[in-house]
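Data card: per-record layout.
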Amino acid sequence: MWIAMLALAGILLYFAFRGVKWEDLVAGIRTCDFRWVLITTLLSALPILLRALRWRILMLQLNPTITRKESFNGIAIGYLANFALPRAGEFARCGVISANKKAPYESVLGTVVLERSFDLLCYAVILLGVLLLRWHEFGAFVMEQIGNPLKDCLPFNMLWLLGGLILLGLAGLWCIIRYRNYLSQYKVFNKLYSLGKGLLDGLIAGFKMPQKGRFFAYTFLIWAGYWLMSYCTIQAFPAIHHLNGVDALFLMVVGSLGWIIPVQGGIGAYHFIISLALTTLYSIPQTSGVIFATISHESQALMMLICGLYALLNYSVFNHLSNQAKKERCQ
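The structure for this 331-residue chain is written out next.
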């Protein structure tokens, strides 16, 4: 699986950079205003910090002693883990919290599910808003470059698949409730039931979160930070300097798809989809599109790696000192 994902990233990188001459790439990078690139890199830390503060609000119902440092370590280590294995970060950050005996792993995972579901809803609202602003441009790109190719490559209708999965899930839930006493004699069922109950506890705790106003404020600031990063990156490139705030919002939305595609750290997927959008929609030369995608991705990835390594060191040192203190107390 890991090799397949890495291979997919390599294929997407190949298609993104295909036809780009090295000397043109270097010349294009030299035209960049790296003051704006530095601002973008520094701004990349903002969503990481805000996500940590927001996630902590969801977990306070599980344990009010969970600190901002622990939440930040979990988020940052999660980003670091995604560079090794896509989506592994969601599980890694739960392990950071549960390893400190602050809350059960399953319950923490429930808060992650709730947080990601809310992010998906926010993304859908922003996407719809962007498409409505310029449907004749953005809508055509999404349908022709993303929607239609996805539809053509699938041998089935996505609505039928979604409906089938929902029915299958409901049938499975009914069977669990109906035959719970019989199934409880099997260890596998008990473990799965414990996992499901923990997830449900985490979801319920999240819905009962305190400081709802702060949660929504952090969410707004997270997406505002992503938009600012996109806009500042535009300002760094003379070739696309004419694009405005709405265009920056669209590139943010499109770029988010690159991070969602299951490849290590969005590598390849982000470069491909951003350069495709700039070339197809704005008639930007491919070289300029690839340069923009590369600088935009690497500025974010660099900050993720810096925060992740810092959090990993912080977490390791904290655990070492904590274990040493326990040994001294035992003696």
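Known properties of this structure: DSSP finds 15 helices and no strands in the chain. The CA atoms of residues 122 and 287 lie 32 Å apart.

See the next section for split statistics.
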